[in-house]
Amino acid sequence: MPTKHTAVNKQLTQRELRSRNDLAREIVKDLRFVLRYARSHSKTLEKQNGVSEAQLTALRQILASPGAKVSDLSKMLCLHQSTTSNMLDKLEDKALVRRERNGSDLRAVRLFLTAKGEQLLSLVPPVQQDFMTVAMTQMSDRELKILHNGLEVLLQKMELAVRKSPQSLV
Predict the structure, then answer these.
(1) Sheet strands side by side (includes 68-69)
(2) Are 53 and 129 in contact (CB under 8 A)?
(3) Structural contact between residues 96 and 120, judged by C-beta atoms closer than 8 angstroms
(4) pLDDT in tens, 17-58
(5) What is the pTM (predicted TM-score) of this model?
(6) Beta strands in 52-170 (DSSP E)
(7) Pairing of strands 109-113, 68-69
(8) Pick the CATH number of 51-124 from 3.30.460.10, 1.10.10.10, 1.20.1600.10, 3.40.630.30
(9) Coil, helix or strand at residue 110
């Protein structure tokens, strides 16, 4: 037979559950805001400069590491190699990068900025190029670790949910 104490504990649990659900909804709302803000920022950059924020980041990485391979750039950008290659196709079409093959190993493609690519980067202030990284550099070490750990846990839980129910992605 439930006691009064058990009923109080059940109420607290329901209150805590509502609080957790409210907090989860707030976090989802905040993440959506971050994504919308990033998309909006990228669209603004693209309108102003003719390239997306991701493309500017790629150009900046190539400037910092001239002669890097596509696989190296993919790692720097945390992108799949095919995604990076597609991005490079667009940047090459705009004459912002060039790909060179080394005579000794024709499989290895080296990446370089063109003069036009260098000129574009000189016109775009670094803060405009990567606002999220700039914002994170203003966070304390503790805040960064908390954010990183929280995002890692969220991603693990999302991957687990997808594995359990892959049709949820459709």
Answers:
(1) 68-69, 109-113, 97-101
(2) yes
(3) yes
(4) 678 888 889 999 999 998 898 888 888 888 988 998 889 889
(5) 0.66
(6) 68-69, 97-101, 109-113
(7) antiparallel
(8) 1.10.10.10
(9) strand
